[in-house]
TrEMBL record:
Key words of the record: Monooxygenase, Oxidoreductase
InterPro entries named among the record's database cross-references: FAD-bd (IPR002938), FAD/NAD-bd_sf (IPR036188), FAD_aromatic-hydroxylase (IPR051704)
Keyword Oxidoreductase: yes
Gene Ontology molecular function, alphabetical: monooxygenase activity
A Pfam family hit: FAD_binding_3
Stated name of the protein: FAD-dependent monooxygenase
Keyword Oxidoreductase tagged: yes
Residue ranges of domain FAD-binding in the record: 5-324
Organism: Streptomyces polychromogenes
């Protein structure tokens, strides 16, 4: 096998999933992660379509089911808490807005990370600062913020929408990311006194504001969210207090349970605020460097497909490398070829896009309620069913990595 030593940047969803499959194929894998441990936090992510098949092929579905969060569905509420529309979880055959298998993002990241142990080397609390590859050379010299420089055969950026690897090897973020004009904050609230009765509650307020709360996995735990529409803002993404301040200002005066959630936000340790933007690149590889998951093709949570893209991308990239005996000059173009149609369809936003999710005026909010109420009926039903069906819109090859632990040629 050529190109034995592979560095992955990012231990979110895509990074550990890739490490898992690369180890199965016999590669030596190092993962560098900026956080001091796998990052907790985030709301539930959906295991749908081909993403779910990848988890099954990893033999992790049983554990994922045990960790999944029980939810009755999505309900829109007005400022006094009255329900204005409901979509139950079993609508769309369990593959709708709230899908049958929803797992907390932090739980999934931890599950994947543990599945890579003890065979994968992790460098936590560090980041790549330089990538040097000579044309036709036999490897990449990587420098880190803390660790000593090292040489790898290949480098994969799985470090999310603000990827450091992408910035170093492909170019600056503002050229490659299309902002949707939407910001979202997520955090865990405990002992807040809010009874969700198993529902994912969402409140739209004028000004393009969305406050939400959905059940967590542990008793009394709620996964809260605040989204707002805004042109790009200058603030430090790594300073949670600056983020909390921004959100508190935007949501001052908003009804429903927003004041209670804002109070819980002040002390939430996993508070996370980010802009939503789609990553669009003509090619996901440059020489010996490849991009995976949100780093290469972030679709944003509005599509509900980011986790499927990350899991499927990891499976395909590792599978193609194994099938090519490690030869990246064969495997990288195949990775692009197999993933491109899947990614292109996944990046088409659902009807209405950011404005549909967070309408700015009262009329828009009423129309959103109306469309949500008619979601399970014609003509909305087939439109939405098509959006969710995209998760399964790819034929996953059997690369022979599941049972034998060895790569074999693609069928
Ligand atoms: C804290 C958090 C909460 C999220 N919550 C939700 C949610 O509620 N709903 C939803 O749909 N999606 C959420 N997402 C996004 C979702 O996880 C991804 O869209 C999807 O699963 C693709 O995963 P990924 O591995 O490509 O990216 P990510 O899950 O973003 O993982 C990227 C990883 O790279 C690490 N990283 C970043 N920069 C560097 C660097 N310079 N060096 C090393 N490591 C780096 C990050 O710490 C992170 O662990 C969240 C992401 C994060 C990080």
């Amino acid at each position: 096998m050529a190109n034995q030593e592979i560095l992955i940047s990012g231990a979110g969803i895509a990074g550990p999933a890739l490490a898992y499959w690369l180890r199965r194929a016999g590669f030596a894998v190092t993962v560098v992660e900026r956080a001091p441990q796998p990052r907790p936090g985030g709301q539930t992510v959906d295991l749908r379509g081909a993403g779910r098949t990848v988890i099954e092929r990893m033999d992790l579905m049983g554990r994922a089911r045990e960790l999944s969060v029980d939810q009755r569905g999505l309900a829109l509420v007005d400022s006094s808490g009255r329900t204005t529309a409901r979509v139950p979880a079993d609508a769309f055959g369990g593959e709708g807005i709230v899908s049958e298998i929803e797992i907390l993002r932090g739980d999934l990241a931890r599950l994947l990370y543990e599945a890579t142990l003890p065979d994968t080397e992790y460098l936590f609390d560090d980041t790549v600062t330089g990538i040097a590859q000579a044309a036709g050379g036999d490897g990449v010299t990587v420098t880190f913020e803390k660790a000593a420089p090292r040489r790898f055969a290949l480098v994969v950026g799985a470090d999310g929408p603000h990827s450091a690897v992408r910035a170093l090897a492909f170019g600056p973020e503002h050229d490659l990311v299309r902002p949707l004009g939407l910001y979202t904050a997520w955090f865990t609230a405990v002992d807040h006194g809010l009874d969700l009765d198993g529902w994912y509650l969402m409140h739209n307020a004028p000004g393009g504001l969305v406050a939400s709360a959905r059940p967590g996995r542990l008793p009394g735990e709620i996964k809260a969210g605040f989204s707002f529409r805004s042109p790009p803002l200058a603030y430090d993404r790594r300073d949670p207090d600056a983020g909390r301040e921004l959100v508190a200002r935007r949501f001052a005066g908003v009804g429903w349970e927003a004041p209670r959630l804002l109070r819980a936000m002040r002390t939430a340790p996993d508070f996370f605020l980010d802009s939503m933007g789609q990553v669009r690149l003509d090619g996901w590889t440059r020489g010996r460097v490849a991009l995976l998951g949100d780093a290469g093709y972030c679709a944003t949570p509005l599509t509900g497909l980011g986790t499927s893209l990350a899991l499927v991308g990891a499976y395909v990239l590792a599978g193609e490398l194994a099938a090519a005996g490690g030869d990246h000059t064969v495997a990288f173009p195949r990775y692009d070829e197999v993933m491109r149609p899947y990614v292109t369809r996944a990046q088409e936003l659902p009807p209405g896009g950011a404005a549909g999710y967070a309408p700015s005026g009262r009329l828009g909010i009423r129309l959103r309620d109306l469309s949500m109420r008619s979601m399970t009926r014609w003509p909305m039903r087939p439109l939405l069913a098509a959006q969710f069906a995209k998760a399964g819109d790819i034929e996953l090859a059997d690369y022979g990595l599941t049972a034998t632990g060895r790569g074999r040629a693609r069928p």
